[in-house]
Amino acid sequence: MATTPSVSENLLAKYETVIGLEVHVQLLTESKIFCSCSTRFGDPPNTNVCPVCLGLPGALPVLNRKAVEFATLAAMALQCRINEVSIFARKNYFYPDLPKGYQISQYDKPLAEFGFIEIDVNENQAGSNKKIGITRLHLEEDAGKSLHEGFADSAHKTAIDLNRTGVPLAEIVSEPDMRSPEEAYEYLTRLKEIILYTGVSDCNMEEGSLRCDANISVRPRGQIEFGTKTEIKNVNSFRFIKQALEYEIERHVEILEGGGRITQETRLYNSHEGKTYGMRSKEQAHDYRYFPEPDLLPLVVDEKWQAAIRASLPELPEARRRRMIKEHGITAGDAHTLTLTRALADQFESAARAAKNPKRVANLVQSELLGRLKAQSLELDQSPISMAGVTLSADLVESGAISSKMLKDLYDLSFERKQDFPAVYEAEGRPEQSRDTSALEKLADELIAANPKQVEQYRAGKKTMIGFFVGQVMKASKGQANPQLVNDVLTKKLEG
């Protein structure tokens, strides 16, 4: 929880928050954007470098075609307009991990513009969706990395690793349309989800594949002009971004209420303290002295190339959820859970189409499979039970061949033995629920005789007592009895 200044709710209510986000997404290419060096994460420092990465005289950049295609695909998924012609520019600034003294980026003519992401600002209220505008998506190269620990003399010196220099990035800049940290969190969640569906990035924040800078200001409610903004940089989780924004809102309000002025600056968030700290004054565009990159021609993504890229655009999460609800008869909650990743959605739909009852498959995936995977810290592709196994188990329950209790036991055995459901089902002798009515009637008679008080309550009108008797029969039969048959037998006996 963020440690924020002490500002009352009444004071906060006087102000409106304005938030815009700049997200850097590393594109999942094998080589860098302007050279053939590897983008592999975790290699020894300064081993994936060449004269182009190092900015040596005479080394000329050559644009990576795959990086362009990935960035264009991401832009299409974000509903952006693709500019047929875009221009690379030099963004000039001096920093130890930027060997050229400039970063190749795009400025006034980006790859794509005017997109949006639709977020749900109140999941409990119908029609509460809100569009967050995307100003632009442009291509640029990453800088290197300054290392402050993990080597000799790290207490006194900073080391530089240039492996990351030249890694291809898509920078996605939102409009200042968000009005709360919660909206910013929702926007980032949707953005990551969409990018993952396209497959252009793994969005791994721990490895720096997705990084976010947040711009925030406050203004008195009703005021049209924006307040002075601050930028929060290098926050490594969505949760921390939300906390940092919460802290900054209260800090801004506290300063303004005290008669002070907000300084436009870049700040860093300390997640251990729950506070932001000033880093440097915020640069303006003119500080970077942008000018067109003289070593690169204009980038032309013509209609033919755009059409070829668009052909690889997958069905995106929201559209897929709407279709799955209609096609498989599942709830909105089911659809949301089952489309969290493209792999999960693909596998669920494969099972749902093969099963007798897609809804039952949805229930089993969520209640039995995903729960066990989470408990054992396993990913979906590590599951001992395949989706074909889920389909078989769903069909067995649907037909009444096995009970829910039997299914749980068989799933437990599958995870213990690390075997798929069909193999365990066969190894256990294809167990089935008992349909022996005479045996059930005998059990029912014994229970009714042994529980006169509960019988009296049932016959006095407390029909929910049937659950007690069903539970006792199921327990006595060790889960082998058919619950519906048990219910029918008991109802007949108790009503008689």
Distance between the termini: 61 Å
Total beta strands: 16
Question: Number of folding domains?
Answer: 3
Helical percent range? 25-40%
Q: Rg from C-alpha positions?
A: 30 Å
Structural class: alpha+beta
Query: Which blocks of ≥5 consecutive residues have pLDDT under 50?
Result: none
Report the oligomer.
Answer: single chain
Portion in beta strands: 15-25%
The largest sheet has its strands arranged as 2-6-7-10-1-11-12-13-14
Write the layout of secondary structure elements.
Layout: H1 9-13, E1 15-26, H2 51-54, H3 65-77, E2 81-82, E3 85-86, E4 88-92, E5 102-106, E6 112-120, E7 129-141, E8 145-147, E9 159-161, E10 168-174, H4 181-198, E11 210-220, E12 230-235, H5 238-257, E13 265-270, E14 275-281, E15 291-292, E16 299-300, H6 303-310, H7 317-328, H8 332-338, H9 342-354, H10 358-375, H11 387-399, H12 404-417, H13 421-427, H14 437-450, H15 452-459, H16 466-476, H17 483-495
Parallel strand pairs: 12-13
Antiparallel strand pairs: 1-10, 1-11, 2-6, 3-16, 4-5, 4-15, 6-7, 7-10, 8-9, 11-12, 13-14
Helix pairs in contact: 4-5, 7-8, 9-10, 9-11, 10-11, 12-13, 14-16, 14-17, 16-17
